[in-house]
Design goal:
Low-confidence stretches: 1-18
Helix content: 10-25%
CATH superfamily of the largest domain: tricorn interacting facor f3 domain
Shape: globular
Mean pLDDT: 91
Strand content: 35-45%
Radius of gyration: 33 Å
Number of helices: 13
CATH topology of the largest domain: Immunoglobulin-like
């Protein structure tokens, strides 16, 4: 009996320790101008760790807004947002005063107010289970709300992550944490009491229960969040299974939106409770949270003054708020370290979305009602496969898109290291797809039971994701692969090898490129559309699985993992026909316009081409045949036959390339290519170019703007020559070898690049270096500096064809996009290419020995810039010469269409020249890829 009593006492002690909650009492006063917050605070902090603590780490995250150089500022710049970097002093956030006292009312010295981590020494060692009380008095300047969505504005003030709190995820003071605006949990399992003193005619609302006017009290497993504004905002109370849940909004709702929500919220909450087992009593949704968690891809498409809705307003509200509510319920219910376990809540949110779409939007299209939009009775989008893609397919497509560029990341990558696109495509979509795949295999009820039981067992406790995966595998062994699967970038590929009819059965061979035992879903279909589903359990360390099905089933087509069910590296080998002309093969489909690929077919894209080459070819009319869709592929081909109206001859180009994309390597891609082209470069004169090339693009941090590459190429040229060119012994045939290294960093404030290359042929060898730096010294105001150096190691050429250019480039490799290849006068000759010397004024001559130059460009007002170029060059048998120029640049479309007006140069005061109009230069870059690359910066 004594032993039993001791055990009960020990058990009760453990329960008491585990039930101990930190408590925080706050008296907060917001100044009348809403810029300053004064706080009196008491923290009762328990040592929840298993070791003695000699100090307590407090998070002072308002200091992330204090100055340039913080982790928050860098992250915002990575996201292409420079507001905080250029913020004025009165817009910043900072701690102005801080006093801390211990339980003996002794003042604890603080070394600095600007650190995001404050280590508070303890008078006595804090043992596991023991508590310490700290009294804090502090005053802070709140940051402008536009930086992160938290802070103050003339309209309202949103408070989150500003109160100084203990770091629950690092009780052992192992490392310093920085605020990155990633919505990570800081406080959990904490009792809060917060009383506000706010300006008159203001209201405060938040995610804590309100006990009286401006007073809040309750327990939270997330961080407190409060909105102070001049108006009250709506809330909707929903009763689910006899329990009320109040959904509070930190913004106004339109009447139609509120009406829709009153209908949909009960559906949302009931659906989520079915999957999770419980709901919080209160949910607060801020405008920031709504913008972050709404449904991606259902917004109207706007172009100029036109608006094209994808979904009805009620459907948009339904889709948006289901994801918002699901994530908010998970945040309020599940305690997880977002850095390490982000995928758990993100994956469950996507899993819930998938289930919701299956129930209510099973046949909805990715493009919504836009697929049925008609013009004069014609539905143009019907020709696209994108119009047939289901809304449910978006989860697999997003993963496939980023994986095919080898920019995906492993699922359990630290959250701050994830690119913005991978936050969605990997942490959310890929994980949600894996959860859905597992649920489909083991049974949705069984999967949901594991989720509900695990969440119930870990109420008020930090989750252990390995434990969850173990519970899942114990429920169904086929999910045991998940634990290792999340820790690496995946390139799993299931493949239908062949189908053989033997007697009364079909022998089906399935291959996989991994040793892991991953189940695969096989679906058969008859010509009448009758379908049957089979789950195939593959064996560990076995790459081939054979299956026998009765031939009497009249099977016409067989599919693996249909609907992007499993995140594979290649869906193109998941389809085979059992009968007909294409038995054991895939059908070929011709398409007119680039599209989302249909993996069931070998697609060839045919698109018309109309180009204006120059005065030699006039218009070039033809078509392009290629296999490149909106998604990248390893093997690419492109053939473009064109008819030259200027010469009446057939011209064109063609290329084939293959890329190796190793998942885990310092190399992101290794590409080999062969290409050829035939065009005209002067009146009646054509050139042929044949190229062999190889390039290596090195691995980069997906959040980084840095890129590194090495390129090697061999080019063979044949040129038609005019009688004068033949008489001067010009080059009709030549070959060029080149090797180059390139480094670029397109970060927002300090953009820079560097390249080093060498080129040669039988008559010359030269080495070229170029460096570029662009500094944004004020919002949209930039200073650019380019350095160029070129040197001939050997130059025995017969003319100046291969010389360095001063103000014009010699396009002997036909690699520059010149409107007039050989134009020496007229508008086409005034095109400027920033290469070689880079001088904008028409300074005569070329360089056959060495040249160095510097090009400077700076903003002065809006689209107007000033530029200046200076350089030194030397030709054989001539002395060294110094040249320079200066002028005004107008950036009509930055980096794509710019016009240069020369002012003063080595030639003199150029506006005084009679032919000044002919001296004006312009750049014109017609490169859609450059536009796309610029637009996607900040995503990956």
């Amino acid at each position: 009996m004594k032993k039993i009593s001791i055990c009960l006492i020990l058990f009760w002690g453990v329960v008491q320790v585990s039930a101990q909650k930190d408590s925080i009492y706050i008296e907060a006063k917001l100044s009348s101008d809403k810029k300053n917050l004064e706080v009196n605070q008491e923290i009762v902090y328990y040592n929840h760790s298993e070791r003695d603590l000699h100090s307590v780490k407090l998070l002072n995250w308002v200091s992330a807004y204090n100055k340039r150089g913080t982790s928050l500022v860098y992250r915002k710049l990575e996201d292409r947002n420079n507001d905080l970097h250029f913020a004025k002093t009165n817009q910043l956030g900072k701690l102005l005063e801080l006093n801390i006292k211990n339980s003996d009312n002794e003042i604890i010295p603080i070394n600095t107010l600007s650190d995001e981590n404050l280590f508070i020494p303890l008078k006595a060692v804090l043992k596991p289970g023991e508590s310490v009380t700290l009294q804090l008095q502090y005053r802070m300047q709140l940051p402008d709300k536009k930086f992160t969505g938290y802070g103050t504005s003339p309209q309202n003030t949103l408070l989150k992550y500003f109160f100084i709190v203990p770091d629950h995820f690092d009780p052992d003071n192992i490392y310093k944490r920085s605020y990155n605006d990633i919505e990570e949990s800081v406080s959990f399992n904490t009792s809060w009491t917060i009383n506000f003193d706010i300006p008159v005619n203001s209201f405060v609302e938040g995610n804590l229960p309100q006990v009286q006017m401006n007073s809040f009290k309750g327990d939270l497993n997330s961080d407190p969040e409060f909105l102070i504004s001049p108006t009250e905002h709506p809330s909707i109370i929903t009763t689910i299974d006899g329990m009320d849940t109040e959904v509070k909004f930190g913004y106004n709702l339109q009447p139609a939106e509120k009406e829709n929500l009153e209908f949909y919220l009960p559906l949302h909450l009931k659906f989520i409770k079915e999957k999770m087992g419980s709901l919080p009593k209160s949910i607060f949704i801020s405008d920031k949270f709504r913008a972050k968690e709404d449904f991606f891809g259902n917004n109207d498409i706007t172009f100029w003054k036109f608006r094209f809705p994808l979904f009805a307003d009620a459907e948009k509200t339904d889709l948006d708020y289901f994801g918002i509510i699901a994530k908010k319920v998970l945040d309020e219910s599940v305690i997880a370290d977002k850095q390490k376990d982000h995928w758990f809540k993100n994956g469950l949110k996507s899993y819930f979305e998938i289930q919701y779409l299956k129930r209510f939007y099973q046949d909805a299209k990715l493009l919504g009602i836009l697929t049925d939009a008609s013009i004069f009775g014609i539905k143009p989008l019907k020709i696209f496969h994108a119009s047939q893609v289901k809304l449910l397919d978006r989860y697999g497509l997003a993963y496939q898109y980023i994986m095919l560029q080898n920019l995906d990341q492993k699922i359990d990558e630290n959250f701050t290291a994830l690119s913005n696109f991978n936050d969605m495509a990997i942490s959310s979509f890929e994980t949600g797809s894996l959860f859905n795949y597992s649920a489909d295999k083991m049974g949705y009820d069984a999967f949901n039971d594991v989720v509900k039981n695990y969440l119930a067992q870990n109420t008020g406790k930090k989750i252990n994701t390995e434990e969850f995966l173990t519970n899942l595998s114990e429920k169904n062994k086929s999910t045991s692969y998940l634990s290792g699967f999340l820790k690496q970038k995946n390139r799993v590929d299931f493949k239908l090898k062949h189908i053989i009819k033997e007697n009364d059965s079909l022998q089906i061979r399935i291959a996989k490129n991994t040793d892991i035992a991953i189940p695969v879903k096989l679906e058969t279909e008859t010509k009448k559309g009758e379908k049957k589903v089979y789950w195939i359990d593959t064996e560990e360390n076995q790459h081939i699985t054979n299956l026998s099905l009765p031939a009497s089933d009249n099977i016409y087509k067989i599919t693996l993992n249909n609907g992007y069910l499993f995140p594979e590296s290649n869906y193109r080998d998941n389809f085979l026909y059992a009968k007909g002309l294409f038995s054991n093969a895939k059908k070929v489909k011709l398409k007119l316009i680039k599209d989302i690929p249909n993996p069931e077919y070998n697609e060839i894209y045919i698109s018309p081409r109309v180009r204006f080459n120059n005065t030699y070819d006039k218009f070039l009319l033809g078509a392009n045949f290629k296999n490149q869709s909106f998604f990248d592929q390893k093997f690419l081909y492109s053939v473009t036959p064109l008819y030259s109206t200027g010469t009446g001859k057939l011209t064109g180009s063609g290329a084939v390339s293959y890329s190796f994309l190793p998942a885990e390597s310092i190399i992101r891609s290794l590409t080999f290519g062969v290409s050829g082209s035939y065009f005209h470069y002067d009146y009646g004169l054509a050139y042929k170019k044949t190229s062999l090339s190889s390039s290596i693009s090195f691995r980069k941090d997906p959040r980084s703007t840095v890129g590194r590459s090495i390129g090697i190429s061999y080019n063979y040229f044949e040129r038609d020559l005019s009688p004068a060119m033949i008489a001067s012994n010009d080059y009709s045939k030549y070959n060029l070898w080149s090797i180059g290294y390139g480094y670029s960093d397109s970060q927002m404030i300090h953009e820079k690049s560097f390249s080093l290359s060498t080129q040669g042929m039988e008559d010359f060898n030269k080495i070229t270096a170029e460096g570029f730096y662009r500094w944004e010294f004020a919002p949209k105001q930039k200073l650019s500096l380019r350095l160029f150096a070129g040197y001939f190691l050997r130059n025995d050429t017969r003319n100046n064809l291969f010389n360095y250019g001063i103000s014009r480039v010699s396009n002997y490799s036909f690699s520059y996009t010149l409107l007039g290849e050989s134009a020496s006068s007229g508008l086409l000759s005034q095109q400027f290419i920033l290469a070689d010397g880079g001088f904008k004024s028409f300074l005569p001559g070329t360089v056959n020995q060495w040249i160095t130059s510097v090009n400077v460009d700076s903003s002065i007002w809006k689209i107007f810039h000033v530029y200046a170029d200076a350089g030194i060059y030397k030709n054989k048998d001539f002395p060294t010469k110094f040249i320079w120029d200066s002028g005004i640049k107008v950036r009509i479309i930055p980096d794509f269409l710019e016009v240069y007006f020369p002012i003063q140069s080595s030639l003199g005061f150029e506006p005084a020249f009679k032919d000044y109009a002919k001296r004006i230069r312009y750049t014109l870059v017609l490169n859609l890829g450059s536009v796309i690359n610029a637009a996607r910066r900040g995503w990956y």
